[in-house]
Write a structure and sequence with these properties.
Length: 546
């Protein structure tokens, strides 16, 4: 999410702007230290999703991934009972809150991962835009830090190279410190690789163990350029939080080239550490000022607040496709603007470009500050089923006389192919659950979906294709719910592909289907007369939305 613009005080109408902060993680959680006390960062002992723009954190280590509560692994990360502070060379203090992530036991590698909310990914990865990330880091000593922090398409695992989850390959970028007791800070790019495929290191190592380090404010800048023009990545040590550093002042820099689809697949925030230390105040946004936790004097988005005849009149510049929350505080020192309370229930306000207007009763307080929070409107979901609650409303049909195959909901168990639903779930629709038979012609129909209000939509589902790759076929039809007449053209599913994991298929819904009140989606599978030993076709996690 992005904080919108001017936050004026009612008494004076003077204001400041809050720049585009998209992700903020201050680790404002209950302490789990001391080490190995039965609780650790990312267990389920408390919610670990209080940060802005992120889902819940999970803990990963080489010897105890998924360790239950109260049986903490030796190799663990914790929430400290204090936070980390930072003052730059000019005496300016970085705004901080909450506690810090800490690691006290120097045993192996530990990693933590949190999913990035889709609006946050979209806000951070557009072509012709800039992304900034900053965080506080302090090494406790021994042999110098070995850490990585970045945005990727997969979770980070607990290896000494800050690798991504195996066996999958992934993309992403970050900032790491590696190599020997004298550790160089580096930019890292992961391009269809488990480990970093590009590393650019600073010339002189910043960290020189075994003594503990100072507190560093580290920052990463990425310039997203269109495909064919190299994207640029820069790493900085920030010593002045009031002045954006020049790119030629970076201690490490590199270029790479991701297309827009690759950029928009970056949906996981990771960090890992082999040594011991603190990580705190992770901020990711679209401006330097945002990740320094401070306001700026001017903004292209204007918020106006005035009192008139017993009412409060609020207006701001708005954009199509955005939603807005009105937040307010009488004491801004208690929290940052993204944490101010929603004022009088004014949340998820639809944009009415070029301006939005609110007229509210005048508050009783003599002074009150306001900010408008802007974020991308979430996609409209017309239908969603992960198949974990049974098959209510679904219909299966056998259209052949051989009766060798049918669609069955449950745990797949074929000779080849998947052995669970997508994401290790218990249920999926599969041809026979085991191996399909010869001469099959079977259909699976969804519950009726109301698309009367849809002007555009797509069908997305996870699929595992495991057929003979030659003569077996599958397709999708959209049917009118009352008559079963076909709407639009049939869409073929490529069954020449043999999947090794579930794949996400996205199919634009034909124009003829949009605006229809009752729509049924039909999957059809047909096999030839050969006796094959394959599981056939499996589908899961069906979503129809914009």
């Amino acid at each position: 999410m992005r904080i919108g613009i001017i936050a004026p005080a009612l008494a004076s109408l003077l204001g400041v702007a809050w720049a585009d902060l998209v992700i903020y993680e201050p680790f404002d959680y209950e302490p789990t230290a001391e080490a190995n006390n039965g609780r650790f960062f990312g267990d389920s002992s408390q919610p670990y999703d209080a940060g802005m723009g992120l889902g819940s954190w999970s803990h990963r280590d080489a010897g105890g991934n998924g360790t239950a509560n109260n049986i903490a692994p030796t190799n663990e990360g914790d929430i400290a009972d204090e936070g980390v502070t930072f003052t730059d060379v000019l005496g300016n203090e970085l705004p901080v809150t909450g506690n810090a992530y800490e690691r006290r036991q120097r045993v192996g590698q530990v990693a933590a991962s949190a999913p990035i909310e889709p609006p946050a990914t979209a806000a951070l990865t557009a072509d012709n835009s800039t992304m900034w990330m900053s965080f506080l880091f302090q090494d406790f000593g021994f042999s110098g830090p070995d850490f990585g922090i970045g945005i990727h398409s997969e979770m980070m695992v607990s290896d000494d190279n800050q690798g991504l989850e195996t066996p999958g390959y992934g993309v992403g970028f970050g900032i790491v410190a590696r190599s020997g007791q004298q550790r160089n800070i580096r930019t890292a790019v992961y391009n269809n690789s488990i480990g970093a495929s590009q590393l650019a290191a600073e010339a002189t190592p910043t960290f020189n163990g075994p003594a503990a380090s100072d507190v560093f404010l580290l920052a990463l800048k990425v310039n997203w350029n269109p495909q064919g023009t190299p994207d640029e990545i820069f790493a900085f040590i920030i010593t002045d939080i009031t002045t954006e550093p020049e790119e030629n002042e970076a201690m490490a820099m590199d270029t790479f080239d991701f297309d827009l689809a690759t950029q928009q697949s970056l949906d996981v925030l990771n960090f890992s550490d082999t040594q011991v230390g603190y990580v705190d105040e992770i901020r990711i946004g679209t401006t330097f000022d945002a990740v320094m936790g401070r306001g700026v004097k001017e903004s292209s988005r204007q918020l106006a607040v005035k009192a008139s005849e017993g009412n409060l009149e609020i207006s701001w510049d708005s954009e199509q496709g955005k939603l807005y929350n009105l937040r307010s505080s009488t004491d801004p020192s208690e929290a940052l603007p993204p944490e101010w309370a929603i004022f009088e229930g004014n949340r998820d306000i639809t944009a009415t470009p070029p301006k939005n207007f609110l007229i509210l009763p005048l508050p009783e307080e003599a002074s009150r500050l306001f900010v408008v929070e802007e974020f991308v409107a979430p996609p409209v979901v017309y239908f969603s089923d992960d198949l974990e609650s049974g098959a209510d409303g679904w219909e299966t049909l056998v259209n052949d006389e051989n009766d060798t195959t049918e669609w069955i909901l449950g745990m797949p168990a074929g000779s080849t192919g998947p052995l669970t639903g997508a994401n290790d779930s218990l249920n999926a629709f599969t041809t026979n659950l085991g191996n399909y038979g010869p001469g099959a012609n079977i259909s699976l129909r969804s519950p009726s979906v109301d698309l009367s209000a849809a002007t555009s939509a797509q069908l997305a589902f996870e699929v595992f294709r495991d057929a003979d790759g030659l003569a077996d076929s599958a397709s999708i039809r959209f049917l009118r719910g009352d008559s079963l007449d076909q709407l639009g053209a049939e869409v073929a599913i490529d069954m020449t592909t043999l999947d090794t994991t579930y794949q996400l298929l996205t199919i634009p819904i034909p124009q003829e289907v949009l605006g229809v009140a009752e729509v049924i989606v039909e999957w059809n599978f047909q096999s030839d007369d050969s006796q094959d030993v394959f599981s056939g076709l499996t589908i899961d996690n069906i979503v129809i939305g914009e």
